[in-house]
Amino acid sequence: MSERSFTISVPATSANIGPGFDVVGLSLSLYLTLKVTITPPTQSTPPRPPVLTYTGEGADEVPLDAYKNLTTRVALYLLRCHDIPKFPTNVSIHVDNEIPFGRGLGSSGAAVIAGVLLGNELGQLNLPQTRLLDFALMVERHPDNVTAALVGGFVGSYLRELDQAATEAASVPLSEVLPEYPPDAGEDWGLDPPQPPLGIGHYVRFGWSKSIRAVAIIPRFELSTATAREVLPLEYSRKDLVFNLQRLAVLTTALAQEPPDPELIYEAMKDRIHQPYRKTLIPGLPEVTSRITPETHPGLLGICLSGAGPTILALATDGYEKIAEDARAIFREKGIEVDWKVLTVVGGSSVKKTEV
Ligand SMILES: Nc1ncnc2c1ncn2[C@@H]1O[C@H](COP(=O)(O)OP(=O)(O)OP(=O)(O)O)[C@@H](O)[C@H]1O
Ligand SMILES: N[C@@H](CCO)C(=O)O
């Protein structure tokens, strides 16, 4: 057996794009990259657990213990589901991350997709993309970020309605899907891992106008998706649902048209399902989304919360700096500092074998 080496690359994502709560996602040009080397054990190099090193966003907070780190725990989940009880020996993983944590740019979705791809490679499982998505959806249960991170582009997805047995299989607590593995437990993890039902997630890729860039205005504070979901109601009025459905139906085609129509898109990126409730967690959100318009900022198409926030996503064909700097000034009135980046819409995740 010879040394194997490969690189996994997963893009950032922005979910919702206004009205498409838990439905649409967009892959963006910031990357989580894993460089992985597997060295066969020799008599002089005894087997050891994976060694993780990490640079970039989150480096000061991410666990480097492979049994605690989200990406490697997801990889181990895949291996265990295929009767491989532990990591191969002598795996080295260097992670470099450009996706800020807890900002609404899909950092956790990227970590989960990286873990699924890592498990697939470590176990040489050769799973098809649809099956990889099933595993990701057992961990991150809304499909918008993980689907866009895996397949790339502007993507709409839904979860298949499952029969009783499959619903139970898919509803197991996350702690059973991804237990906090005690490092001294050897191979004896106890429970059989819950297998994902087949074909949970389904998606379609929409067109995307090449002239549109995404300005990500990123407040310098983290907001966990869990917290940002707790403020949402369980039920909505018919009026609000119809408001969102009308806009989403228009938006998915409007963003593919050349040239894109700001009048159509600005209104189609409005939302009544999640943004109004999240404004309590993101001071400045209503002001930024209402004061920056195509009339005040030529080139702007539409503006919304990115994922669960706090990042604001402005889609535009021009005028990126003015949009971002004016958003910065509004946030500053609320005592919040931001960073901003102009991003492009990119393809999905990749795994490239590297020569050693
Ligand atoms: N590269 C990574 N490696 C390990 N853990 C990560 C990584 N990226 C994110 N995480 C975990 O995910 C958490 C952030 O997830 P969360 O869902 O709250 O935000 P997000 O995914 O950045 O935002 P959103 O889902 O709204 O786009 C981090 O605090 C960290 O625990
Ligand atoms: N659709 C999700 C995306 C966050 O990951 C939400 O808005 O909560």
Automatic annotation (TrEMBL):
<dbReference type="InterPro" id="IPR013750">
    <property type="entry name" value="GHMP_kinase_C_dom"/>
</dbReference>
<dbReference type="Pfam" id="PF00288">
    <property type="entry name" value="GHMP_kinases_N"/>
</dbReference>
<keyword id="KW-0067">ATP-binding</keyword>
<feature type="domain" description="GHMP kinase N-terminal">
    <location>
        <begin position="69"/>
        <end position="153"/>
    </location>
</feature>
<dbReference type="InterPro" id="IPR014721">
    <property type="entry name" value="Ribsml_uS5_D2-typ_fold_subgr"/>
</dbReference>
<dbReference type="GO" id="GO:0004413">
    <property type="term" value="F:homoserine kinase activity"/>
</dbReference>
<dbReference type="InterPro" id="IPR006204">
    <property type="entry name" value="GHMP_kinase_N_dom"/>
</dbReference>
<comment type="pathway">
    <text>Amino-acid biosynthesis; L-threonine biosynthesis; L-threonine from L-aspartate: step 4/5.</text>
</comment>
<dbReference type="InterPro" id="IPR006203">
    <property type="entry name" value="GHMP_knse_ATP-bd_CS"/>
</dbReference>
<dbReference type="InterPro" id="IPR020568">
    <property type="entry name" value="Ribosomal_Su5_D2-typ_SF"/>
</dbReference>
<keyword id="KW-0418">Kinase</keyword>
<keyword id="KW-0028">Amino-acid biosynthesis</keyword>
<keyword id="KW-0808">Transferase</keyword>
<feature type="domain" description="GHMP kinase C-terminal">
    <location>
        <begin position="260"/>
        <end position="322"/>
    </location>
</feature>
<dbReference type="GO" id="GO:0009088">
    <property type="term" value="P:threonine biosynthetic process"/>
</dbReference>
<dbReference type="GO" id="GO:0005524">
    <property type="term" value="F:ATP binding"/>
</dbReference>
<keyword id="KW-0547">Nucleotide-binding</keyword>
<keyword id="KW-0791">Threonine biosynthesis</keyword>
<dbReference type="Pfam" id="PF08544">
    <property type="entry name" value="GHMP_kinases_C"/>
</dbReference>
<dbReference type="InterPro" id="IPR000870">
    <property type="entry name" value="Homoserine_kinase"/>
</dbReference>
<protein>
    <recommendedName>
        <fullName>Homoserine kinase</fullName>
        <ecNumber>2.7.1.39</ecNumber>
    </recommendedName>
</protein>
<dbReference type="InterPro" id="IPR036554">
    <property type="entry name" value="GHMP_kinase_C_sf"/>
</dbReference>
<comment type="similarity">
    <text>Belongs to the GHMP kinase family. Homoserine kinase subfamily.</text>
</comment>
